[in-house]
Amino acid sequence: MTGEKRQTDDLTIIDFIGSAMEKWLQKSFEVYAYADLAALSAEAIEERLKADGKIPDKRKIEMWIEQAATLSATKEVNTAAKQDHIKASENSHAARRLVNSGNGWKESAQFVVYIESRQRNGRTELQTTVHHIEGNAYQTWSGIVDDQLCQWLKEHIEESAVEPADFSELDDTAKPVRVVIEKLRLRQPTQLVHLAGQAASQPSQAVKSKETCVLEIEFSLSGEGVNRLIRQQADYRAKAYALNLHTGARMQLGSYALGKLGASQATFLAQLPEIQLQPGAYRLWCSVAILAENAKPGLIEAPELLVL
Q1: What pLDDT, on a 0 to 100 scale, did the predictor assign at position 25?
Q2: DSSP code of residue 251
């Protein structure tokens, strides 16, 4: 549609789609994003390939659609994650503008660049994603790019309109704080499994696929700025990812847990929303980030979790 920016994804990330097939999908179906491909039927693609004199492979076409649906869903989750990151960065942006205000520099645009990775077929794949904060626009490329990224940044800089920041409550003497994750537990109706940290269970202890489960992350804070963040009741965000050790697929486990630091607490407990795991062997990573300036997130890993 005229005047609107089209959301685009790198379709060549999908198995058996090369640059030529990507162009064919764009021309034949106006497929530019994972969601566009996921919305098509295998039959429609198969018929168009036949009409163009190509030999279709329905199994591969169904794989395209399935992977596109997964990538689209993952992209939505990552978008939510990036919005959380933006919130966490607001104080940092304000602090930088305060410092620069005295030397004539003025911030004209804000971008966040992510280098993301996943395991597929025994190898690590990388992609570059950039977010233009003022315009709420995203772009993703396969691999680590430089020229394409720089060109995209230039095209979006003039679209920005940064509002003056309110520095009235900014603490420019903030001290660094680090999150220390002490325990990771998985709670089910019939059992409590200690996955990592103190009192961790024996390796490869199984949980039940037929029962729902809740991941619990117990953490503390260290550093000179702890009291300041507790007084402010700063927000924190907890999230968890899993790697399927058999398929190499990586996924986020449910949505995020958001909470506030309570006063007079030595340790804090984050509980992620209830999920249900499919049978398999997984490696888990959990992280907790304080949504404030100068706070370093904590990360903990559970090397192996069996779901039966």
Answers
A1: 94
A2: E
